[in-house]
C-alpha cells in the first residue's frame, strides 16, 4: 500500500505507474481515492471540532450550574445534545469512508523502481548475467521423473490415491537428497549471519492481505474451512507477519532471517499442475530469506540477497542466470524483482528456481510495522528471496549432476548432508 500523500500531492505519478504496469483499468482508482480521502479528512476534522466544543461546553455547563444559572446551562445542554447527534453521524461516516479508502488503496500498485524495464509480461523480462557455463553433454539427459524413477524415488500413483493430482511421495536417496539440499541451504544462510526460524505454517486473513494483493491471495492460498486461517504459500508470509503492529528499535535493523517451511499453493492458471513430474505441484518445501531494514538500505540488501542464491547454486555445480522482472510481471506490492533461473541441460534452457523482491514499505504499511528512529517512527522496508525451493532445486541438481550410466554426482558442499557419499547409484 502506497503512502496516501502520493495521491494527495502527485496523483499523476501514481497513474503513470499504473500505466507502466499495464493496469490502465485501475487508473480511475486514483481519483476515487483522492475524493474519498478529502471527504474522510473533512469528516475527521469536523468530528474533532465537535468533540473539542463538547468538552468546552461541558465545563461551561458545570460552571453555570454552580452559579445557579440553570436556564443558561439548559440552553447549552440543548446544543450539546444536538452536537451529539451530528457527531454520531460523523463517526459512522468516518468509519465508512476509512474502510472504503483502505480497500481502494490496497488495490493501487506500489511505485516501481526507476531501473525496472517496461514490459507487458514475463516474456519481456531481461537477462542480467549468467553464472557458470551451461553444458549440454553428449549423452541424453532423461526427463527428471524418469531419472528419479530409476532410484525408486518418486511415487505419484500413491499420492494420487491419498491426495490427488499435484502431490508426490519422494523416496530413498532422492528424498534424502531433497532434505540434504534444504539443510545445506539452511546452514549456508546461517553462515551469512541470518537467524534461523521455523514459522507457523498457517496464518490469519489480516496477515495474508498484509503481505500480498487480493488477486495473488485468490490464486495461491488454501483456506481452512470454518476458521480464519490460511495455509502459507511461502514462509515469507508468516515471517513478515511476525512483526505485525510492532515498533522495532532502529538499532535492531536490519533484521535478517532465514526460514524453513512447507509451502502450499493452488497453482491456479493456464500453466496447470504437472502430471508426471515435480516441477509445478501443490506442495513443496522451501528455505527462504527475509530482511527488514531502513528504506535507504533496501537496494543494497536486494543485491546481496539474490547474489546469495546464485552463490548457493554454483556451489552445487548448477549454472544459473539472473533475470530482471519487467513492470508487467511485478506483483502489485513489489518495487523491483529478479528471478534466479537454473540451467536445464535436458531442455537446453533456463527455468525459474527462485525470486528476489524488494517491496519498499508496502507490506509494512499494511501490517503496521515501524521502526523508532531519532526523528520519530517510520515504516521499514521489507525484502524476501528464495534460498532454495525443494522440488525445482532437485530437478536442477539431478540434471546438472547426471552421469551417462544414470548415477548422480554429489558435489563436495553437499556430501556432509548425504552421509559422505560422492555419488548415488540408481536401483534399476
From TrEMBL:
Cellular component terms (Gene Ontology): cytoplasm
What sections of the sequence does the record tag as coiled-coil?
66-107
Q: Which residues form the Aminoacyl-transfer RNA synthetases class-II family profile domain?
A: 143-411
Q: Where is this site: Important for serine binding?
A: 386
PANTHER family linked to this entry: SERYL-TRNA SYNTHETASE
Q: Which Gene3D superfamilies match?
A: Bira Bifunctional Protein, Domain 2 (3.30.930.10), Serine-tRNA synthetase, tRNA binding domain (1.10.287.40)
Broadest EC class assigned to this enzyme: ligase
- Record carries keyword Nucleotide-binding: yes
Q: What is this protein called?
A: Serine--tRNA ligase
The entry's keywords: Aminoacyl-tRNA synthetase, ATP-binding, Coiled coil, Cytoplasm, Ligase, Nucleotide-binding, Protein biosynthesis
Protein EC: 6.1.1.11
Q: Which GO biological process categories is it annotated with?
A: seryl-tRNA aminoacylation
Q: Does the keyword Isomerase apply?
A: no
Q: InterPro entries attached here?
A: aa-tRNA-synt_IIb, aa-tRNA-synth_II, aa-tRNA-synth_II/BPL/LPL, Ser-tRNA-ligase_type_1, Ser-tRNA-synth_1_N, SerRS_1_N_sf, tRNA-bd_arm
Q: Could you say which residues bind L-serine here?
A: 234, 265, 288, 384
